Amino acid sequence: MKRPVIFCDFDGTITESDNIVAIMKHFDPPGWEPLVEQVVTGKISIRDGVGRMFELLPSASRAEVAQFVFDTAKIRAGFPELLSYCDRHQIEFLVTSGGIDFFLLPLLGPFPIAQDHIYCNASDFSGERIRIVWPNPCDENCKNDCGMCKTTVIRRYPQDSYVRILIGDSVTDFEGAKLADLVFARSHLITKCEELGLPYVPFETFHDVVRHLGENTIQEGV
């Protein structure tokens, strides 16, 4: 029987809002809004857009930016219960995020997720401006310049051996949704799934995810 594995987005999924957009709105560096619009509409790549957004911020603002996220980010209801469910049922759980390490890792610190199961972008504060580093680039099968390539991670879990479950909400999840056997979607990902004709399960909290997994997925191996 295939083994289930979950690939879970962070910004707007594990957290209730997109922290990168929240950072940009709060600190409001000139030029950030067109970059967000161009990423969402696909006019520029995620890697290009996110990299250019953070270059608008001085490295000296690192602590202030991180503190803003710590003070404002809210973990979506049911997340501890989802992790507990995965542990009980031996479901491998990976965080696959286009977020940045300096705020993402501390927020996930209280939760029992192994470091090697967290995929995200890194950061460099050695220069005058914040520089984003990309330790998880696209493989030869992806040409989307994702930055943190979720499809590359997903392909490490072959479909003939795994039930690949994606949980997400936005542009960084669009390509991964095409590969997944089961998609839990909210926000922009719902719109994209409907455009592409991809089946999905809508969710608002992780309680919804746990409920669906308990009622359907594990037993049916879908």
Automatic annotation (TrEMBL):
<keyword id="KW-0486">Methionine biosynthesis</keyword>
<keyword id="KW-0028">Amino-acid biosynthesis</keyword>
<dbReference type="InterPro" id="IPR050849">
    <property type="entry name" value="HAD-like_hydrolase_phosphatase"/>
</dbReference>
<dbReference type="InterPro" id="IPR006384">
    <property type="entry name" value="HAD_hydro_PyrdxlP_Pase-like"/>
</dbReference>
<dbReference type="InterPro" id="IPR017718">
    <property type="entry name" value="HAD-SF_hydro_IB_MtnX"/>
</dbReference>
<dbReference type="InterPro" id="IPR023214">
    <property type="entry name" value="HAD_sf"/>
</dbReference>
<dbReference type="Pfam" id="PF12710">
    <property type="entry name" value="HAD"/>
</dbReference>
<comment type="function">
    <text>Dephosphorylates 2-hydroxy-3-keto-5-methylthiopentenyl-1-phosphate (HK-MTPenyl-1-P) yielding 1,2-dihydroxy-3-keto-5-methylthiopentene (DHK-MTPene).</text>
</comment>
<keyword id="KW-0378">Hydrolase</keyword>
<comment type="similarity">
    <text>Belongs to the HAD-like hydrolase superfamily. MtnX family.</text>
</comment>
<dbReference type="GO" id="GO:0043716">
    <property type="term" value="F:2-hydroxy-3-keto-5-methylthiopentenyl-1-phosphate phosphatase activity"/>
</dbReference>
<comment type="pathway">
    <text>Amino-acid biosynthesis; L-methionine biosynthesis via salvage pathway; L-methionine from S-methyl-5-thio-alpha-D-ribose 1-phosphate: step 4/6.</text>
</comment>
<dbReference type="InterPro" id="IPR036412">
    <property type="entry name" value="HAD-like_sf"/>
</dbReference>
<dbReference type="GO" id="GO:0019509">
    <property type="term" value="P:L-methionine salvage from methylthioadenosine"/>
</dbReference>
<protein>
    <recommendedName>
        <fullName>2-hydroxy-3-keto-5-methylthiopentenyl-1-phosphate phosphatase</fullName>
        <ecNumber>3.1.3.87</ecNumber>
    </recommendedName>
</protein>
